[in-house]
Amino acid sequence: MANHELDPLPYDYDALEPHISEQVLRWHHDTHHQGYVDGWNAADEALAANREAGTTDGSADAIRDVTHNASGHVLHELFWQCMSPEGGDEPEGALRDRIEADFGSYGAWKAEFEAAASAAGGWALLVYDTHSQQLRNVVVDKHDQGALWGSHPILALDVWEHSYYHDYGPARGDFVEAFFSVVDWQEPTRRYGEAIALFE
């Protein structure tokens, strides 16, 4: 059975200031993200113990915990990779072209993504939808409610309150704008390229 571990941030804790504070990154990464990793491991251990014992007592709750915590871990890993102190630019190349083709313009995509972020109870995602072979913005509540099966996450924005309340209070929109000051399109571009290679 795999033991899931939390990787370090790909930059220093204070690297995204003043847009995201060192304190928020420490709490968010070291406490919240670590909690999802620990929860995933604990749920896997509970399921393994039940299988060994030949029982399903508590298995349904453990299965639900796997879904919640594993999704939280995967999305947080992408979230960290979608930001950098050198960020704040706009996408270029093939991903930019596809955004313009599927949404009309980068500005139209950004406005729709911001609308998703304002409504989400967890995450706003840009995903590649393998069924319709197009990019879509997705509203995800918690970590696993509202996900589109078969889609590949390209860009992730965490809008749980622990992401921004210390820095921005209830002004989530200000946090979303701050995200675009540090967004780094290198990882989304790589993920888009992988999806296209597999499904088109």
Strand content: 5-15%
Low-confidence stretches: none
Give the count of structural domains. 2
Distance between the termini: 34 Å
Query: How does the helix and strand content classify structurally?
Result: alpha+beta
CATH class of the largest domain: Alpha Beta
CATH architecture of the largest domain, please?
3-Layer(bab) Sandwich
Order of helices and strands: HHHHEEEHHH
Strand order of the largest sheet: 2-1-3
* Number of strand elements: 3
Radius of gyration based on Cα positions: 18 Å
In one word, what is the shape? globular
Q: Give the number of helices.
A: 7
CATH superfamily of the largest domain, by name, is Iron/manganese superoxide dismutase, C-terminal domain
Helix content: 40-55%
Average predicted confidence as pLDDT: 97
* CATH topology assignment of the largest domain: minor pseudopilin epsh fold
Oligomer: single chain
Could you explain the architecture of this structure?
This protein has 200 residues and is of the alpha+beta class. The chain folds into 2 domains: 22-81, Helix Hairpins; 93-199, minor pseudopilin epsh fold (3-Layer(bab) Sandwich), CATH 3.55.40. It contains 7 helices and 3 strands; from the N terminus they run ααααβββααα. The protein has a 3-stranded antiparallel sheet with strand order 2-1-3. The chain starts with 21 loop residues before the first helix and ends with a helix.
